[in-house]
Structures are given as structure tokens and as C-alpha cells.
Write a structure and sequence with these properties.
The chain is mainly alpha-helical. The chain folds into two domains: 215 residues, no CATH class; 121 residues, no CATH class. It contains 17 helices and two strands. Strands 1-2 form a two-stranded antiparallel sheet. A hairpin with a 2-residue loop joins strand 1 and strand 2. The longest helix is centred in the middle third of the chain and has 36 residues. The protein starts with a helix and ends in a 6-residue tail after the last helix.
Length: 432
Amino acid sequence: MEAHFTEWLNLGIRWIHMITGIAWIGASFYFVWLENNLNRSNPREGLSGDLWAIHGGGIYHLEKYKLAPPKMPENLHWFKWEAYATWLSGVALLLVVYYLNPSLYLVKPGVELSPAMGIAIGLGSMAISYVIYHFLCDSPLGKRPALLGAVLFVLIIAAAYGFSQIFSGRAAYIHVGAIIGTIMVGNVFFTIMPAQRALVKAIEENRTPDPVLPAKGLLRSRHNNYFTLPVLFIMISNHFPSTYGSQYNWAILAGIAILAVLVRHYFNTRHDSSKYVWTLPAAALGMICLAYVTSPAHRAPAAAPVAAVEQPARTTPAKVEQASPAAAPVEQAASTDGAPAANAGASDFAQVESVIHERCTVCHSANPTSPMFSAAPAGLMLDTPEQMKAQAAKIHAQTVATQIMPLGNITQMTQEERDLIGSWIAEGAQIN
């Protein structure tokens, strides 16, 4: 019952996070598009531009004032709760998925880091990152947008590299996303909203608004716009182990972030000229290159998790029953002439089946024995030889190539067992 409740809690929070995120991102994209497409030729007095648009069977006329209208309207719509709700639901999701089971989902296997310290690093990095970002934006560097962007990029990727050394691949990515999301919501709460409130107050008090604050709010809003696509990728990245599961996951994230920013820049500037149209084919080519260099044939094998070889599995409240000695299935596969166990077992499916049953089907089963799951994660079941053969590619990707499974290596799969499975798959994944 506990696993079932946790699954639905995860689903509910994730659903809220997605809904509010779409609302926030949609508003961000729309207002940047609106700003870029205003007709600024001969606007009437007091306006900086206007726009005519048609949508949903209606024609709209939108006007932007240089600062504000002479008199404030009775109903003025504010855009803030989308940002706050997205961040709050994101933090709640971080808590439910990673911080309730830090030994399993957060801390990288083999790293001597207590769960409490891992959580402290995760939460602390979010606050510290915003403080650094805010300081840089208000420094002289803030007057040089391109250089500021480059510095921020280097710092974020440095954080990604640091996270990858102590956190699991998925946790490292999601904490980079949490940093960026915190910066974005911080921009709304500490800069954009105060600037808007100051503008409204000045109009109500019949005095000239300070143009500096709205300009600063617009700059931070543009920052948020460029952050959006990298954050969206991070939100879906847990479905793609060839990215976060690579030993160079931080570099892959850097590459995808650059491509995402290039694409966003094209859409932000295409109203003015087509000089950045090259970014679209360049981004497509970049994704193809990333797919190529991260393929198993061109990727260096990941280092064996220390926890799988030298240390017992970490204890966790949701831990499955202790697996039997890790090397047993492979030792049984050794031939009489002393050949290496992995090679001997490559053609002996019985040994592979034993490893998969012992290390994988505690979760990936029609009836999981692990208390963490009430149903097989992602619907992937490995109860029968036929299911194992059908899922051979996924088994290879997650247990051999990237070694992200079992989660936290909770069932103590050894490197020899991974090699055994890899050899079996390389020989055609025969089950007869």
C-alpha cells in the first residue's frame, strides 16, 4: 500500500508541476514574442508599439505603453502564480522522488556521502546559485549580456560536473534543473514583480515611474526565456539513460543546452532578420553528433560502481531483502578448464537468467517483491525468458552500457554479472 500511495503522490505532484510549468513557459514565450513583434513605427503618443493578431476566431489589438497609461485600469492581470506554483511543485517532486529515498535515488553508488549531506548539498546549491546569479547580474558584468551568458553557462556546467561526481545521473541532471528553476523563480519574485509593483505604485501616486526597474525586469524575463528549453530537456531526460547515464553526462548536458539556446535565439530574433536561421540545421546536426558519440560503440565503458564490488548495498527504508552473494551466479558459470566466468556464461542462458531474476525482477516483475513498487517500473517485466529476450536492448542500455540499473545498485549486481549479460546480448540474446 505504501508503494502504491507513493506512486500516486508522485503522479499527482508531477502532473501539477507539468500543468503549472506549461502555463509559466507559455506566458514567457508569448510575452517575449509579443515584445519582439510590436509595430514600433509611428506609435501614438505614450505607446512604444502595438500589435494586431487573430486567434481562435477573434481579432485582438494589443498596445504597450512606454511606461504606463495615464490612469491605471480597474482590472490589471498579473503573471506570477504560474512561476511560484511551478517551483513549489518542483521542490515537492524533488522531495518525494529523491529526498525520501536518498540512498537509492540521490547519492551515487560508491560515494562516501551521507543521505543528509546529499540533501543539504542539493538544497544549498539552489539558494547559493541564485545569490551568485543575482550578484553577477547587478555587477558590471550585467551590462555585457553575451559575456554574462557565457559566465553563467560555465558556472552551471561546473555545477553539473560537480553533481555528477556525488549524485546519480538522474539526480545530477534534476539538480541542475532545480538550480535553473530557482534562478528563474527568483527573477520573478525578487526582480520582475517588485519592478511591476513599483511601476503601478508610481502611477497611483501620480509621479513619473523609474524606468530602470522595468528595464531590469525585462532583462531578467529574457534570461528566463533562454533558460526554458534546457530546463524542459532536463524534465524529460530521465527517460533517456544514454544522456544522464553516461560518464560524460555533464558534457552531454552542456552540448544539449547550447543547442537549445541557439534554437531559442533564432525564434527570439527571427522577427528582425534571418541571420540566425543557421542555428536550426546546426542544432539538428548537433543532436545527430551527440547521438553518434553517445552510442555504445563509441562510448567508453562506464566505471564499475565501487559499491557493487567493494561495499555492501546501502541500507534504505525501502530496501529489498538482501540478495545472495553477488558473485555466485557467475562463479557457477565457470568452465572446467578455468575459462573466465563471463565468457563461459555468454552462451549459457541459465546463468544469465539467474542473474536477471536475482538482480532485476525484484522490481521488474508482474508481482514485484520490492516494497518500493506496486507494479513494474515503466511496465517493464522480466519474469520469463521471452520477456528478457524482447527487452535485451533496454537491459543492455541500463545495466551494461550506462550501469544505472539496478537503482543505487540495491541488489548488488557485480561488474562480472554485467559483463555476463553484455556477452549474452552481444551473442544474440539466445534463450534456447
